[in-house]
Write a structure and sequence with these properties.
By secondary structure, the protein is mainly α. It is built from four helices and two strands, in the order αααββα. It is globular. This is Helix-turn-helix domain-containing protein.
């Protein structure tokens, strides 16, 4: 199964939402021990956006917070697809 961010039916996202590449950058930088403010500066995003993304989408594994961008993107794509009441 191909990743959802590369699916042909996936619509391009606006600047409001984090892209898969931004999520990958967050995961790489967090694994390297980089702080949230430094990550936000690198991405050109608010530190609160990066902090919220990590807090909402990190899984606790073996006592530490692991952030997985592929899982997060799959959840975001599914939420964007679902029907929303007007």
């Amino acid at each position: 199964m191909p990743p959802t961010h590369m699916a042909p039916w996936a619509e391009p996202r606006t600047g409001r939402y984090l892209s898969f590449s931004e999520r990958e950058d967050i995961a790489i930088e967090r694994a390297n021990g980089v702080g949230i403010r430094a990550i936000a500066c690198k991405l050109g995003r608010s530190p609160s956006t990066v902090s919220r993304e990590i807090r909402r989408n990190a899984a606790i594994r073996s006592g530490r917070m692991d952030y997985r961008p592929s899982t997060t993107q799959r959840h975001a794509d599914r939420a964007a697809r679902r029907h929303k009441k007007s």
